[in-house]
Design brief:
- The chain has about 400 residues and is an alpha/beta fold.
- Helix content is about 40%, strand content about 20%.
- The chain folds into 2 domains: about 200 residues, Response regulator (Rossmann fold); about 150 residues, Response regulator (Rossmann fold, 3-Layer(aba) Sandwich), CATH 3.40.50.2300.
- The protein has 13 helices and 15 strands.
- It starts with 5 loop residues before the first helix and ends in an 11-residue tail after the last strand.
- The structure holds P-hydroxybenzoic acid (PHB).
- P-hydroxybenzoic acid (PHB) binds next to loops.
Length: about 400
């Protein structure tokens, strides 16, 4: 046993004993003893973004189940915590994941408000956060951290590309609406920046409380402004209500519906039905992409859930893929967060959304953004690609560099 540590000697001894008793092979016993890989899922499983949290979770399961729920020999444990789309609840659940569960990674959240609240405790705990949705620009700009990576999008990325495009192809006057919190202001703000720079005129702007079910007041304002187009950020059940009421209010056909792609994404489009037809949006994923990676993912996701994937499922898939590749590179070791961060920074692969890679200076993902229109086409009611804004990188800077 020369050259082996006390722990290794003990392990080998136990393994040999159990192996002989149970008739198991040596590697099988070692695998049975591997420390579980604990992944804390800090996601909404209730309220306005409940479906988003479920989709992210299922997208991750699609990867881990293909791997037999083991990564680099370690059994995967997904610990689900419902943040209820609330910053105080998110913070409380994060503390539990860190201090009681001692998770190896935190995945989430969905809301920019929850993300802003958990940034400092994550940074101080030196635990890797794989932000699988929340777009809060600051998290990969002035509030960046060596331990925070974003596998989804920055809020800026989801709408900047659309402003100039709709000015050229749809019209020159717009009314802007969104959910009344950071994501709404940042997504609407980035659209406005590019729309105005391209010569467009903004006729008005209104925001609705997150989780609203009645959009009549905003729709009346859009009606009286009579713009060529409306631009919106609404997601989850807010998107379902807004788009249906937009049509019921008689605006469809008079004002072109545009927005960040969450407005009519694959998770909400079936409930919206005819009301969504004609909407023009930008997003980094649509289920109609024909790449081999997307066709394969659709098959796997459908076998697992009985449904086709949406953008949130792909974000979950890519987040799990990052964890898988990182652990393959460290041989399953998660003890050193700085080593993990160095490894994660370099991860690249072909995702169902397109080429996946991080901007190493900010840890934000670089996305191809698809300009899309809702039509009834070969895939049924869905978002079909009209144009692609390639390699869109958030323009922000991380003051101390995330490295
Ligand atoms: C956010 O709060 O950053 C957010 C939430 C839902 C989305 C997109 C962004 O669909």
């Amino acid at each position: 046993m020369a050259g082996m540590s006390r722990r290794q000697v003990l392990r080998a001894g136990v393994a040999a004993g159990v192996s002989a008793a149970a008739g198991l092979s040596f590697p099988a016993v070692l695998r049975a003893q591997a420390k579980p890989l604990k992944i804390g899922l800090l996601l909404p499983y209730s309220k306005v973004y409940a479906v988003l949290g479920e989709s992210i979770t299922n997208g991750m399961r699609a990867i881990f189940e293909t791997e037999g729920n083991r990564v680099a020999g370690r059994p995967v444990e997904l610990l689900r915590e419902d943040d209820e789309v609330s910053a105080p609840v998110g913070l409380r659940k994060l503390r539990k994941l860190l201090s009681s569960d001692h998770v190896d990674f935190v995945v989430g959240p969905v809301s920019s408000a929850v993300a802003a609240a958990i940034r400092d405790p994550i940074h101080q705990a030196r635990v890797i956060l794989l932000n699988a949705n929340a777009g809060d620009n600051a998290l990969t700009r002035e509030r960046c951290s060596p331990y925070i990576f974003r596998t989804s999008f920055s809020n800026w990325q989801t709408s900047y590309g659309l402003g100039a495009w709709v000015k050229q192809h749809v019209g020159g006057t717009a009314y802007l609406t969104g959910s009344d919190y950071a994501a709404g202001y940042q997504i609407v703000g980035a659209f406005k920046e590019s729309f105005v720079a391209a010569g467009g005129t903004v006729l008005g702007e209104s925001y609705a409380k997150l989780g609203s079910t009645d959009y009549a007041a905003i729709l009346a304002k859009i009606g009286s402004a009579a713009p060529a187009l409306s631009f919106s950020f609404f997601a989850g059940t807010d998107a379902v209500h807004f788009v249906k009421q937009f049509a019921e209010f008689g605006l469809k056909g008079k004002v072109r519906l545009t927005g960040a792609g969450f407005l009519v994404s694959d998770d909400v489009i079936e409930s919206q039905g005819e009301a969504a037809v004609g909407a023009v949006t930008t997003l980094h994923y649509t289920r109609t992409l024909r790449s081999p990676q997307n066709l394969e993912f659709r098959k796997r996701y459908q076998a697992l859930t009985g449904r086709l994937p949406d953008v949130y499922a792909v974000q979950g898939h890519d987040t799990a893929r990052v964890i898988l590749e990182a652990l393959q590179k460290t041989g399953g070791d998660t003890a050193d967060p700085d080593r993990l961060a160095t490894v994660i920074r370099g991860i690249q692969f072909d995702s169902p959304r397109g080429r996946f890679r991080f901007d190493p200076a900010t840890h934000n993902v670089i996305n191809d953004m698809y300009v899309m229109e809702v039509r009834r086409g070969e895939e049924g009611l869905a978002n079909y690609v009209l144009a692609v804004v390639k390699d869109l990188k958030d323009p922000g800077h991380c003051p101390n560099t995330a490295t």
